[in-house]
Each structure stands twice: as structure tokens, then as C-alpha cells.
Amino acid sequence: MNINDLSVLFAAVELAVKRGTFSLFEIGAVGQAAERLGAFLKDANEQAQAAKAAQEAEQAAAEGQAPAPEAPAA
After folding, report:
1. Which of 1, 7, 40, 57 could pair covalently with 67 via S-S, beta carbons 3.0-4.6 A apart?
2. How many domains does the chain have?
3. Do 57 and 67 meet the contact criterion of CB atoms below 8 Å apart?
4. What SS3 class is residue 36?
5. Alpha-carbon separation of residue 35 from 43, 47, 62 (angstroms)
């Protein structure tokens, strides 16, 4: 299982909630799990972007170039 699989799972849960798949008694637990999953995916995405930026900076330094400026976080 990877981050893409978890993203698909998150989207599936969101769609199931919108369609009323869960009962009133289940929705609280589902919502809490979805919030934790969403936070995990956000953190993983931020870490991946930071790692990519660091790798690009390393590569640019190795090639004798100045690193490209980072885009502001959304």
C-alpha cells in the first residue's frame, strides 16, 4: 500500500459519506478516521515536496548552479 492507495481510499470514504452510506451512529468514527487520514496525507505530501526540493537543490549544487527559488506554500 502506498500514498496513492491511501488517497484513493480517502476519496472513496468522502464519496461514501456524501452518498449517505454510513448510519448516524457510524459517521462519527468514520469522520474521525477520515480526518486522521487526511492529515497524514497532507503531511506526507509536504514531506515529499520538501524532499524533492532538497534533492533538486543538491543536484543544482553538484552541477554548480544556484537552486531554483521555492514556490510559496498553499
Report:
1. 57
2. 1
3. yes
4. helix
5. 12, 18, 40
Residue 65 one-letter amino acid: Q
Report the alpha-carbon distance of residue 16 to residue 61 in Å, rounded. 47
Cα atoms in the 13 Å half-sphere on the side-chain side of 3: 11
Which one, of 12, 69, 6, 68, lies nearest residue 37 by Cα?
6
Q: Whole domain around residue 46: which residue ranges?
A: 3-62
pLDDT digits (tens, 9 = 90+) for 17-64: 999 999 989 999 999 999 999 999 999 999 999 999 999 988 888 887
Give the span between the Cα atoms of 66 and 56, in whole angstroms: 10
Give me the pLDDT at residue 69, please. 65
Identity of the amino acid at 30:
V
